[in-house]
Amino acid sequence: MKLDQDDRAPGGRVPLIVMSRVGKTYETPAGTFTALSGIDLDIDRGDFLAVVGKSGSGKSTLINLLTGIDRASTGSITVAGVSITGKSETALAAWRGRNVGIVFQFFQLLPTLTVAENVMLPMDLCGTYVGKRRERAMELLGRVGIGDQADKFPSALSGGQQQRAAIARALANDPPLLVADEPTGNLDSRTADDVLGLFADLSARGTTVVIVTHERDIAARVDRNIVLRDGVVDSDTAGRRVRAAE
Ligand code: ADP
């Protein structure tokens, strides 16, 4: 995605996501339940942030809205100047394929495809020239440090390697936004550390990385923490860098 100089806010920041007065309600048998209310958030290009909060605080709901998996009940969300709140389902799915990479706790690689084939899968959405797909997959696997695992099936890889493969797959279409849902929840602490380092590198290269987690440890590794409580932003360290000196 191209961002012009005009997109730059004062201070060189380049806003990627702007959420304005966003709310989400669910209809339940017991009545209308408010999962999120009054969310105002600006997330910049290259931001490395964690959305933290207790179970039920609204983390998944927030992520589902900003990735276009679900729709806000109120308010507006723009990504790189494009409103996603007004898009049709079809347009939203196409938008998501090009603009958002998602990494899951349990990797969700297809077991019957090799690692390289898993990485090539999302390229269908963007119509990457078939003859270029393998080359691109190899480049991405090299970038996440598992180029030598490309032709194995996922079950032959360690948990950390599978998560790296999943990150490579999420990057297949070079999205400006990478969202990771509890990405280290299934990894030992050393491997988790490596994966967080990889996310930090990606953010330094301009990808916005949003990690959803209930693990407070991760909070110390990112640049910004957004804490949700009962569907509202309880605190946001934007502007105050929280990452410990490295
Ligand atoms: P978190 O990811 O922080 O655990 P969620 O975003 O999943 O929180 O949920 C926030 C609140 O919204 C919770 O109280 C949850 O029960 C409620 N909720 C989430 N999805 C639905 C749904 N589809 N229908 C009704 N309530 C829901």
Tell me what the structure shows.
The chain has 246 residues and is of the alpha/beta class. The protein has a single domain, classed as P-loop containing nucleotide triphosphate hydrolases (Rossmann fold, 3-Layer(aba) Sandwich), CATH 3.40.50. The protein has helices at 59-66, 89-99, 115-120, 123-126, 130-143, 159-170, 189-204, 216-219, and strands spanning 15-28, 31-44, 48-52, 74-79, 82-83, 100-103, 177-181, 208-213, 224-229, 232-236. A 6-stranded mixed sheet has the order 6-7-8-3-9-10. The protein has a 4-stranded antiparallel sheet with strand order 2-1-4-5, with helices on one face. Helix 5 (130-143) packs across helix 6. The radius of gyration is 18 Å and the shape is globular. The chain starts with 14 loop residues before the first strand and ends in a 10-residue tail after the last strand. Residues 1-6 and 241-246 have low confidence and may be disordered. The site of adenosine-5'-diphosphate has 12 residues, from strand 1, strand 2 and helix 1.
